[in-house]
Amino acid sequence: MRRICDNLQSGHWIYLYDDDVPVLLPCLYSRYTHVTGLSVVYKKKRVETTSTFEFLLEEVEIGDYAQYERGQQLGLFLEWVEEYDHPSVTLAWHTALPAELINEYINEYLIVKLQKSEVVVNKAINSLNSYYNWLTYFFDANYKKIFMFAEYRALARANNKSILIVKYLLPATRELLYRYTDSLLEEVVLRNGGELGCRTSENRGLYLDNFQADGKMREGLLSLFKKMEDCPEKDEFEYHLPSFCAKYGSSRTLYIFRSHLQLMERYYNTERPESVSNHLLVSNSRNHTKGDVISKRYGSAAFSKTLKKLLKVMSENPQAYSGYQTLDEANVYHHLRHSFGTDIFHDLCVVAKKNYETITTESRVYIETARRLGHKVDGTYTNQTTKNYIHACEQRAALLKDVVNAQR
């Protein structure tokens, strides 16, 4: 796909497939904003006669720069959709994408991966809301709520700063976070990020009974619990994370240490509520969701709550935590996964006797790290991903040095 801001002829953005065929609806939307100078917004209005509120879509005026910005941000989103490696996520079907995936672009991609500032993220939110509201207003498409998740807001604000937030969490820092969780469920979920590299949504991919996935029958966790009992000398167990639970549809193997598997078993035996679900991790809420699989954002919410609790304790007892890494309210669940990936990347460099600064996207070190994390290795942003790990290894070395110096 390519996009052109055609100031000479049409005066607005044009979006084209690789064969130069227009991506019709985005082109029509850009034409609409340019010719009418309007944008469609979602508004709440009070009904005086009933003292209730009604929600409606309404056209409002926007200026030339806002028209340009909406077209620019829409184009960046469409490029991301084209790059997204999943058969159901295509440029041709971008109008039917669920709000969940559009919000992944806003929160996981712009805020976490690209470290975009709150200002830039809000521009993307306004632009995508304008486009999808337009589709609802004129074509009766399903309304989509596009927004910044509460647990990512602090990180977006931190991205405004000249010194960006440190995304690497030392092993001791991760252990400290695990210690301050309120339940075994929360501890398992956070450890899944820091010790298995799971995305928050991938916590829903842990099944109890054996299951069919990716062409064959796979071992569930109950089988691994049995294997752990039968093989007391075995310290690592393999679990197949199915493609239908992983981002990009990329299945992968999770290597679970015995101590972590024992924690999962303890949660299953002592804390997990009765449920007909085959998922290991289910809600213990008192409302109607009790016993259902945890939400895709459960990991993010649990991390945010635990972080706030730990930050309060650390601020009240500075001497007791003087030797620990400094945490920030802008840290998020994804930083656990990022830390896991950085450790894998670093350890593979050590084994290969390579300096991490020399690693390229063709290196076995990079390819194996990508495999362990379920990353794509042939996409547009692979070079940036490699740079992120190199930078994270530098942060890791600096943090370890700081901790050693603080303990002297």
Describe what this molecule looks like in 3D.
By secondary structure, this protein is mainly alpha-helical. The protein has 2 domains: 157 residues, no CATH class; 236 residues, hpI Integrase, Chain A (Orthogonal Bundle). 48% of the residues lie in helices and 12% in strands. A hairpin with a 5-residue loop joins strand 1 and strand 2. The termini are far apart.
Helix/strand layout:
Blueprint lengths: L1 E5 L5 E5 L7 H13 L1 E10 L4 E10 L2 H20 L15 H15 L4 H22 L10 H9 L12 H9 L4 H13 L14 E3 L2 E3 L2 H10 L5 E6 L10 E6 H13 L27 H19 L17 H19 L11 H10 L8 H25 L2
Antiparallel strand pairs: 1-2, 3-4, 5-6, 7-8
The secondary structure category is: mainly alpha
- Report mean pLDDT, rounded to a whole number: 92
Oligomerization category of the chains in this entry? single chain
Query: In CATH's first tier, which class of the largest domain applies?
Result: Mainly Alpha
**CATH-defined architecture of the largest domain:** Orthogonal Bundle
Entry summary:
This protein is mainly α and 408 residues long. It contains 13 helices and eight strands. It is globular, with a radius of gyration of 24 Å.
Which key terms come to mind for this protein?
two-stranded antiparallel sheet, 48% helix, mainly alpha, 408 residues, 2 domains
